[in-house]
Design brief:
single chain, alpha+beta, four-stranded antiparallel β-sheet, about 35% helix, GIY-YIG domain-containing protein
Length: about 160
């Protein structure tokens, strides 16, 4: 499936979730599905927004996560630097035996992610609360089964 079709499908999923959780106010719910493209450059969270981020390499989702309105560093930079947090995309890629052929290291993995992965962001008004964001994230993770989510012992 090409990335434009994925974006449309993701937007339909998000809209469907909002219809379920708040069907009376669906016209007032503000969200944006934004393709950052490939290569991509991450952008910060706008004021009063929460976000979901998705990294896609080829036709595989690598990571889908969410952040509240006070987690701009997580949204913008932590997934590109393996030493920035306990868990992030860069660290997962470096630990993955299937990625060894790319000859990535701590200094090159962030650039590789930006150059080789599509990124799609969903920005949602923070007035909806983190639970609404969690529902969307869970549905997207269930549907797309990102490689670097959960524990191998759970699969």
């Amino acid at each position: 499936m090409n990335i434009k079709n994925r974006e449309k499908e993701i937007e339909e999923i998000v809209n469907g979730v909002f219809k379920i959780i708040d069907k009376d106010n669906i016209d007032e719910i503000k969200y944006d599905v934004i393709s950052r493209g490939c290569p991509h450059e991450p952008k910060g969270l706008p004021k009063n927004k929460m976000g979901i981020y998705m990294f896609i390499y080829g036709d595989r989702f690598l990571k889908i996560g969410r952040v509240g309105n006070k987690s701009n560093a997580r949204f913008v930079s932590q997934h590109y630097n393996p030493n920035s947090s306990k868990s992030n995309l860069a660290k997962s890629i470096l630990k993955d035996e299937d990625m060894k052929d790319f000859n990535l290291d701590e200094k090159s993995v962030g650039k590789w992610i930006k150059d080789e992965c599509f990124r799609i962001d969903i920005l949602v008004d923070d007035s909806l609360g983190i639970r609404a964001l969690s529902v969307i994230e869970s549905i997207l993770q269930y549907k797309y089964k990102p490689i670097y989510e959960g524990f191998k012992s759970q699969r």
